[in-house]
Amino acid sequence: MDVSSDAPTADIPEADENELSTEATAHRSLDRAVARSAEIEADLVRDAGAYRVLTGDRPTGRLHLGHYLGTLANRVRLQDLGVQTMLLVADYQVITDRDDAGPIAQRVRDLVTDYLAMGIDPGRTTIFAHSAVPALNQLMLPFLSLVTDSELRRNPTVKAELEASGGRPMSGLLLTYPVHQAADILFCKANLVPVGKDQLPHLELTRVIARRFNERYAGGKTVFPAPDALLSQATNVLGVDGHKMSKSRHNTIDLAMTEDETAKQLKRAVTDSDRHITYEPERRPEVANLLLIAAEMTGRAPEEIAAEIGDGGGGGLKKLVTEAVNERLRPIRTRRRELEADPAVVEQVLAAGNARANEIADATLAEVRSAMDMVYTS
């Protein structure tokens, strides 16, 4: 096919300060997002059914304690409140920044197993995979027509990857990663996305794409909502080496670990030479991190736990944290072993979720084609 003789042109307006935040307007945008998120939290108790949430994970390895405290527990909370929840296994996004996706089929099954063990109910939450929903991914084409190259390169994730690449060419999938995220959110017309403050620029681009589609192709009719952020109050925990908990650093407490493996991993945890345990995050970050984990696992205050340990030193602290983590995760791990023994359950859940996601995506794509006057047959 020869397209060189009639190269397309597009007049795409650059986003103004009301669309994609510049550094000068970032603080105002953050303040607005915080205020709006607080309003939504209050409204969730009254009218949870008015919201549809899209969230998910890349299947790059087993989930760990950081995921549990950061996102998983909140997903169960939203589901139990009655929020319509779409939970994405973002398998296509694994290949945005790596040459090898690894044992992706097994990792997808592990991820779904962790979701179910955590308390995600497939009767109330739709669990589905990127690659199984063609219409979702097809939305990227019209969405890409609505953004510019410079807007994509200003996205913090893309910008950071470019700076860290050392001159290595960026894949087209990585450059358009923010648009793929917009397709994830908008295909199901999610109006609420749980994010951290650092992820707000991603959501801002999704909001821009929704507005531009409605204006350009739908004559101002609302085909896509501009989704709001539900800002996370998540606890950020460090790994056992004192750095951010990360699968690539092998410093995690995995949900799938045995109790003995958990104890062995926590024995490696960094503390300091002061035997008297105190909760001082600025002065003693590693000790404070372990106290925070124990607090989250037990529902107690970290200061109270520190006072209880007193002069017990790092050994006493690690023993208490190990007991707290194993106690809290015991029913989750028991459920996980049951699911591993019956892999057909995970496959059935994913098949049903994929079917539901395809119904939604097909309906959305049909609406998009109609708005774009691209329906040619009856």
What is the topological layout?
Layout: H1 26-47, E1 52-57, H2 65-81, E2 84-89, H3 104-118, E3 125-129, H4 134-138, H5 140-144, H6 149-154, H7 156-164, H8 172-175, H9 177-187, E4 192-195, H10 200-216, E5 228-231, H11 259-267, H12 285-298, H13 302-309, H14 313-340, H15 343-371
Parallel strand pairs: 1-2, 2-3, 4-5
Tell me what you see in this structure:
The protein has 15 helices and five strands. With 378 residues, it is mainly alpha-helical. It has two domains: 8-234 and 344-371, HUPs (Rossmann fold, 3-Layer(aba) Sandwich); 247-340, Orthogonal Bundle (Tyrosyl-Transfer RNA Synthetase). It has a three-stranded parallel beta sheet with strand order 1-2-3. The protein is globular, with a radius of gyration of 23 Å. The chain starts with 25 loop residues before the first helix and ends in a 7-residue tail after the last helix.
Task: Give a nutshell description of this structure.
With 378 residues, the chain is mainly alpha-helical.
Task: List the main descriptive attributes of the protein structure presented here.
single chain; 378 residues; mainly alpha; Tyrosyl-Transfer RNA Synthetase; 2 domains; two-stranded parallel ribbon; 15 helices; 5 strands
Identify the CATH class of the largest domain: Alpha Beta
Rg on CA atoms, Å: 23 Å
The CATH superfamily of the largest domain appears as: HUPs
Instruction: Assign a percent range to the helix content.
Output: 40-55%
Biggest sheet, strands in spatial order? 1-2-3
Shape: globular
Number of strands: 5
Q: Output mean pLDDT.
A: 90
Number of helices: 15
Count up the domains. Answer: 2
According to CATH, what is the topology of the largest domain? Rossmann fold
- Proportion of strand residues: 5-15%
